[in-house]
Amino acid sequence: MSTLASQLREIVAYIHGYYLIPIFIFGIAGNLMNVIIFSRNTLKHTTCSLYFISLSIIHVFVLCFGCLTRIVITLSGFDLTRYSLFFCKFRVYFFVAGIAISRYYLCLISIDRWLVTSLNAPTRRLSNFPIIRRILIISTIAWLIFNLHVPIGFRQEANGCVPSSDGFYLTFYLVTNLNFAIVPFVIIILFSTLTLQRVTKRKLIRKHNAIVYPIGPVERTAVAGPPLLKNDPKRPVAKVASELGILPEQFIACFNDVQPAPQGSEPTAAQVHAKKEHLLSCLQKVNSAITNELLDAVMDKYRAKS
Questions:
Q1: Is 246 helix (H, G, I), strand (E, B) or coil?
Q2: pTM value > 0.70
Q3: pLDDT tens-digit profile of 224-243?
Q4: Local structure of residue 67 (DSSP, 8 states)
Q5: What is the rounded average pLDDT of the residues 268-283?
Q6: Secondary structure letter of residue 81 according to DSSP
Q7: Residues 6 or more apart in contact with residue 143 via CB below 8 angstroms
Q8: 87 within 8 A of 81, measured Cβ to Cβ
């Protein structure tokens, strides 16, 4: 029986070692590509990109402390966790903390999508870079502090680094692991469902508005003719709309609602802010992913040099 158990352990270790190699390679490559893609000018101005960049960085750490060390142990037969108590605790701590933080980030992403698809403008404004940065920094530090129980509770044994056999800590460790597996799953399912409902509702509203308020001949002429705005002839409609992820006629319809300052006068700061808020609110009804930062970046990009 002991021989069979030993053979089974060897088979499992062999499978673990070699199936983790492609997971590690493709995982590292995929997460680095995520960081590069979400850092591009067209995406970095969306709030959700900050979550995905942070999530990809955490996944790189998880792959290094989880997969890479296991691959080295399997291929070389040398397990440093059996000889170094510091490495034993250090490796498990960052692996467990990384898994917890990555699941927490996925929950934040699903909640952020729920916020930006809201029909309520103040709710949508809760998804902004300053708030997200504070949430990421504070929550990451909190998770790192919470998971300090791992290096305290783990110890070295013949089969590697394992949680203490003390009844209280072992129960605590198993319960927390179970909760960290179930709770994020429930949160993601809940907010993804709510987001889907909101997106469906917004589509129905847009379809209703398209029937009740069809695009008039002025907007159609503007789209069919030279791609310039009536109230802002220095920016091309097609390019601006493309980067905002909407149709040119949709951008024109929103922009034409913005009343320009009387000819020969300069608008006040309050007027500029009010017009921008009106334009952003209208555009977000068409595409909820449009943020204040993205609108500023696109409009500045196509601002004609005087």
A1: coil
A2: no
A3: 444 444 445 456 777 787 77
A4: I
A5: 76
A6: G
A7: 97, 100, 101, 104
A8: yes
